[in-house]
Write the structure tokens for this entry.
Amino acid sequence: MKYQSFCMRVLCLLLILASVIGYNSMQKKDTQEQETQELTQLQKRVDTLEEQQKEMLAALEEAAKNQKTAKAQAETDTKDDAVKEGAADSEDAESTDDSENFYKDGTYTGSAQGFGGAIEVQVTLKDDEITDIQVTGASGEDSAYFSQAQSVISSIISAQSTDVDTVSGATFSSTGIINAVVDALGKAENE
């Protein structure tokens, strides 16, 4: 009887151990499946983000190309207008004091597309010199980038030209300021 009781206890112990081992292996399998699913989801998210990043980079490159083309066209138009004006001035026998200058004295406004929308500037001219540039509107611009981009204003005033380098890290905003100044200068030209 003792032997039979001992065998029953051993058998019960073996059944309990088998149940615990079986339960643990099932838990490991469920955990592994869950981790695999999470990794798959994460990989899909990464792939989606990489694709979005590529699309954004392509759009930014296209926008930069368009801005360079627009800037080159604006500069070409400004030079063509200057040549036409120079020819008209040389033909004009009577000239006033202000017409000897390329630009009329005064304050002129201009606008151009920046990173987040239109940028508006006010350019003050005196004796063919840019004396002041003030940004009057840039509501769509990111303040962190735009504050960097505004350093292009001092470069324009120092060079007395819009043919200056854009600000690294704020390329679109600084290009918008440059193009807005070009627009204002176009309005200030003597005819």
User: Anything to note?
Assistant: Residues 90-96 have pLDDT under 50 and may be disordered. Residues 109 and 122 are 4 Å apart (CA to CA). The beta strands are 106-113, 118-126, 129-137.
